[in-house]
Amino acid sequence: MDDAESHVMIGxxxxxxxxxxxxxxxxxxxxxxEDEVVxxxxxxxxxxxxxxxxxxxxxxxxxRLVGFVYGMPNDRAHWWSSIVEPYLRTNGTADWLDxxxxxxxxxxxxxxxxxxxxxxxxxxxxxxxxxPRSILSAIDTESPARGLYRSLGYVDLAxxxxxxxxxxxxxxxxxPLPLPRRAATGN
Length: 187
Known about the structure:
The protein is an alpha+beta fold and about 190 residues long.
């Protein structure tokens, strides 16, 4: 990978205009089929119409999108909240659905993973929130993504959450804002 492609810049992105670029990243990072990409495209565009929705991208010097995050203030009337609420209620954590910024999607191209891009994307977007906490869902397995979220202060609020049509269970995680930064290591 040449220098122009290895260095990325994090900044606001017009996700509606770059939805196909973002979904290409998500398809590679998350393993989506072409049919799933078509469905997700409509979902992303609908989400972006919600009040307070914002998106950030990781772009190379050549302008290639290699990562993105988007989210919005949580609304209990949204589909995601209606699915996770019973699981959270059972665990006594349903109050996390109020006054929370939800990370809807966060994906980084595999060629750029492990370089702090995901960390910078999620801290940048949550730093813009005036809400006291953040919530998200992630596949309920030990993974680099779950490790990243834990390192940022996210804890499991509910596990084995089943979304309709999702083959694997998810965990719902929450963290107080602002998210912590890594201590300087001198490297």
